[in-house]
Amino acid sequence: MKDQLKAILDEAMERIENATQSDDLNEIKVAFLGKKGKLTSVLKSMKDVSADQRPIIGQMVNDTRVQLEEKLEEKKKVFERQELEAKIAAETIDVTLPAKKPKMGHRHPNSIAREEVERIFTGMGYEVVEGPEIEYDYYNFEALNIPANHPAKDEQDTFYINSDILLRTQTSSVQVHEMEKGRIPIRMIAPGRVFRSDEVDATHSPSFHQIEGLVIDKDVTFADLKGTLDVFAKELFGEDTKVKFRPHHFPFTEPSAEMDVSCFKCKGKGCRFCKGSGWIEILGCGMVHPRVLEMRGIDPEEYTGFAFGVGLERIALLKYEIDDMRLLYENDTRFLEQF
Ligand code: DAH
Prior knowledge:
The chain has 339 residues and is an alpha+beta fold. The chain has twelve helices and nine strands. Strands 1-4-5-9-8-7-6 form a seven-stranded mixed β-sheet, sandwiched between helices. A two-stranded antiparallel ribbon has the order 2-3.
């Protein structure tokens, strides 16, 4: 029995010594210590050993098992260290390789144009405010003097959530929210997204942006409107820009006008850019309609105001001479990088 144990130990030790990978160790463990392993079978034959020898042999089997386990553990550590070293060697970083340059994002032409307009108006003491994109029909139309059957509602067909709630067609709705706050004077601009159920083409998109302007105070006149928008146009398109007001109609202003700026490309001589007219239309404006004031409880005999609305994409397209609005929404970085 003793010799048999010695032989088993020697064989196991040799096999462990010669093992080349951690899988070998598992095999060895099964072959000697497993259920049908060599050492286990010695243990099973203990019943044939005489009672006085049994504790001595039992102790020897145990010692053999402990030695085997220790050796296995020792070898396992060797393999683990080798594997770690190999991994570290494989993962060595070559610090002399040139780094990848992170790609920096860009401000979108719309954002640049919006910030420019905000800069001009905050410089004149205006506050920048926001209103909801999902709006009550009341704020988008009714409170702006556009009742249920008004034809202007047709021109600004939009996406209805139900008969009372819609995606706003114009930032003019923010005028109503501002007046509702009950603080006068008001001197605000409201940039934001608007929606109309238009087909996409070079000049239309179902979603675009406007910047609304509203001033309400005592003694505000059409001269203030003209002076303010003249400064705006000169700041935006250059000192030598001229402005021209054409009579127009908007339900929420009276009188109403559209403002053209002299073509900054040909300086008014007429070119492809301004379609030969020398002028480019850029915004709608007017004196706030007395009815709009009354509906908000503002006395039109005491207070007057002016309002204007300008398309943000229109400004971005003009300023950067982009001839297709779709380019602004495609997010092609090769296009955006130019601004
Ligand atoms: N909301 C108008 C539109 O979308 C633009 C506009 C015109 C706004 C005149 C105004 C204004 O504030 O006074 O066509």
